[in-house]
Amino acid sequence: MKAIKWITRSVFCFSIIFLFLTPALLFAQQYPTKSVTVTVGYAPGGGMDLVVRAITAASEKYLGQPFVIINNAGGGGSVAYSVVSKQKPDGYHIMGNSTSGFLYTPHLRKVPYTLQDFIPICIVAKTPHKGIAVRAESPWKTLKDMVVYAKSNPGKLTYAHNGPGSVQNLAVETIIAKEGLQIAAIPYKNSVESMMALLGGHVDFASLGLHENWDHVKGGKVRVLAAMDDERCTELAPDAPTLMELGYNFNAELNVIMVAPKGTPPAIVTKLEEVFFQGTKDPEYIQAMKNLATPIFYLNSVDTKKYLEEATPRLGRLLKDLKIPTEIGK
Q1: 248: CB partners within 8 A, 6+ apart
Q2: Together in a domain, 107 and 152
Q3: Are residues 120 and 269 in the same domain?
Q4: Would you call 212 helix, strand, or coil by DSSP?
């Protein structure tokens, strides 16, 4: 008798659970039935925007519905993070952005979101290559030449970068800290403005994105002294060693991430993860990344989350060690 009651009670409980899960399962099976909006945290035409457009264009054939790009630039990508964190978690609102919004920005200023407000879908690429450059007529042929000059002329050099806490800023501050240099940092809105400042003679060197300045680099107007990624930019500056090669413990460590708002059904996240994985293998995407001089790099949802949880505090300590100005607590 007790066994019969236990079985009856168990069947009833499983029936209730099934009734609750069935709509979600059916929804996930039918997904998607319309286009999926992808918010990009940077302006149209920039390196981040072009990578996201490339992966979505290559992946939508596997999704069965189009991806629609919306640009919401500002705050180094943090504005888009703030917006998407509040959107409906239905699989129709996701984001393609730089991991800087998790790894760097929250250490520098207060933001209305955390990693827990999102479900990482995957990482699809590294961000376009970045480097330290001087004008073609500069007397410095190598980074070492410039460091030697800076040591002999404290306070004389200036450099352009993308703002306090940007990887372009952190790369040079790492050099300054190790070598004991005095160099003035001058922030600009983006790498294009930094390049204009360099070409105009307003700064002595610039730490900037190479893709955004492809024509100037390939045209020989500037000379790249070092790359700040974990590998050389073979397409644009194959002879420029990485900072790691030169003995500086710095790697830009930025990737292009796809995320969804917290609460997005796991089955939908898994589907998007698979779709983007197929996209990274697609010849269309591979060619686009080659044209952008951007390395393809893929991490699935679980590995992306693990990476972010490990890297966020580690890079926070780097910012603290380099004494990068912060708005937190003000």
Answers
A1: 174, 175, 178
A2: no
A3: yes
A4: helix
